[in-house]
């Protein structure tokens, strides 16, 4: 099942300007800055030693269509998806394996989208 909030998505107009603000003005640390495609990068920051991370995104990234919110973590993403489906949760983006990890999205009754991420080597 869901075990923790892994990432919070914040939409920004310019990732470099946002990175400068979050790191140099707010005192956060850059955690990850990885390409997801030629136009996209996965850029995360967090206060020193804290969890969850904040992903600074300019658009829908890497197949996470319509996503602008919380990303949950889980110890077993396939079992979590199976359990959520059995409970009638609306899975909006089926489980996929990408080079950057495993991903699935679901919506609550009001249409709010949430993600679940796991490392690519998990499972």
Question: Could you write a compact summary of the structure shown?
Answer:
The protein is an alpha+beta fold and 123 residues long. The chain contains 2 helices and 8 strands.
Order of strands, widest sheet = 2-3-4-1-5-8-7-6
- Please report the number of helical segments: 2
Overall form: elongated
* Number of structural domains: 1
For the record, give the distance between the C-alpha atoms at the N and C termini, rounded to a whole number.
Answer: 14 Å
Order of helices and strands: EHEEEEHEEE
Largest beta-sheet details: 8 strands, mixed
CATH C-level label: Alpha Beta
Detailed description of the structure:
The protein has one domain: 2,3-Dihydroxybiphenyl 1,2-Dioxygenase, domain 1 (Roll). 21% of the residues are buried. The model has no long low-confidence stretch (mean pLDDT 84). The protein is built from two helices and eight strands. It has an eight-stranded mixed β-sheet with strand order 2-3-4-1-5-8-7-6. The protein is of the alpha+beta class. It has helices at residues 15-25, 77-86; strands at residues 2-11, 29-35, 41-46, 53-57, 70-74, 90-98, 101-107, 113-118. The longest helix has 11 residues, at 15-25. Helices cover 17% and strands 45% of the residues.
């Amino acid at each position: 099942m869901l075990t923790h909030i892994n990432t919070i998505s914040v939409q920004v107009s310019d990732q470099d300007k946002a990175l400068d603000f979050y790191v140099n003005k707010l005192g956060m640390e850059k955690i990850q800055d990885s390409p997801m495609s030629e136009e996209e990068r996965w850029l995360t920051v967090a206060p020193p030693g804290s969890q969850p991370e904040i992903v600074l995104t300019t658009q829908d990234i890497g197949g996470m269509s319509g996503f602008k919110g919380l990303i949950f973590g889980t110890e077993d993403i396939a079992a979590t998806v199976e359990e959520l489906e059995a409970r009638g949760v609306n899975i909006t983006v089926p489980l996929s394996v990408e080079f950057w990890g495993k991903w699935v999205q679901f919506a609550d009754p009001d249409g709010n989208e949430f993600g679940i991420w796991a490392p690519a080597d998990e499972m």
